[in-house]
Amino acid sequence: VARHFVGDRLGSGPVGTVADLGPGQGAVLKVGGQRSAVYRDESGEIHAVSAVCTHLGCIVGFNDAERTWECPCHGSRFDVDGSVLQGPAVDPLRRLSADADGEPGADES
Ligand code: FES
């Protein structure tokens, strides 16, 4: 996994934690030591997947208009549950568990 992306966050908006996410908002957050692509849907449910693109390991960013995760490196796109919408990535973003408080689990496997 490439670790050369050192920016804190590629998403837009002043979101620092999962609790800051309003309905329909997504952000890349560092949760449990790993970069997580976290989206809160309109019903308040948290969708958390790894922010590491499965193509070559860049960090995805949230597209507010489309509500998708997009990779800045080669243009792969994923839905909020990590499924591939557009390549070159083939594999989905890894799903992370979210507990009742909406905090994604620190799944390092
Ligand atoms: Fe994400 Fe290539 S690293 S599309």
The count of domains is 1
What is the count of β-strands? 7
Mean pLDDT across residues? 82
Distance between the termini: 13 Å
Q: Which small-molecule ligands are present, each listed once?
A: FE2/S2 (inorganic) cluster
Q: From N to C, what is the helix and strand string?
A: EEEEEEE
Q: What amount of the residues lies in strands?
A: 25-35%
Q: In the CATH classification, which architecture applies? A: 3-layer Sandwich
Name some characteristics of this structure.
Rieske Iron-sulfur Protein, four-stranded antiparallel sheet, FAD-dependent oxidoreductase, disordered N terminus, binds FE2/S2 (inorganic) cluster, single chain, mainly beta
Structural commentary:
There is one protein chain. The two termini are 13 Å apart. The protein has one domain (1-12, 23-99): Rieske Iron-sulfur Protein (3-layer Sandwich). It contains no helices and seven strands. It is mostly beta strands. It has strands spanning 25-31, 34-40, 46-50, 61-63, 68-70, 77-78, 84-86. FE2/S2 (inorganic) cluster is lined by residues 53, 55-58, 71, 73-76, 88-89.
